[in-house]
Amino acid sequence: MRLHRFILDLDLSADELVISDREATNQIRNVFRMEAGDPFIVCDGKGIEATVRVVSDDPSTSSGPSAIVAKVVDRRAVDTESATKVTLYCAVLKRENFELVVQKAVECGVSAIVPVISSRTIKLGVKLDRLQKIATEACEQSGRGIVPAIAEPMSLRLAIVHAKPNATNFLFEPGSPDFPETLVPSGIVSAGLFIGPEGGWDPTELDLMHSADFTAVSLGPRILRAETAAIAATFLATRA
Ligand code: SAM
Q: Which of 3, 47, 177, 219 has the maximal Cβ count within 10 Å?
């Protein structure tokens, strides 16, 4: 049986955990109806997780729901990260499409996501708290141990500077050469993936990325929606 898994900001070196996060206590208590002795998994979001068992749960305090105490049974490092640290630089898309990109890219194994404001970006803002929550839930669900950071939106010029330390950067643009059998060869420690907005990159932006020595690649002869391209590119890059 697969145990329920929560990512919580807790020090897992302790023998007993006091879980006070409202959403987690509500799920443990009211959704999964766990009782003393029931096991579940807690991950710290930084690469360590522990199997724990409920010790006590006293929901009936006058000051609202109380914490749940859990005993650590064992702890371990989580080894589900991609060998290549992949950063997805994706133009800000319509809210639900950008949220889909965050959820699926995190499931695929992205290390960080940078929302990019390009000249053809229609929607300018993102709700970072909500996106970070979606990223955390995608990690809980997919068994990841490290929650990717979602950066503040930045201009393409700044994103290019941000991407400079990457071992390689890919500009995804229809009509470019097909990528070789594997997008990122093994041994490449970090890669940036640049995905344009619904209307595509404008010619000046393409020049900027070419001047920064990005490798232009195609995802095939069909024009994909930006969210499809972002998810497919992340999947390919995290295979190394
Ligand atoms: N009208 C735009 C054009 O023809 O370039 C379409 C933009 S597409 C909907 C949004 C983004 O997804 C593109 O800027 C690109 O980054 C990526 N994309 C979509 N299809 C692609 C393909 N076949 N190869 C590479 N990138 C693709």
A: 219
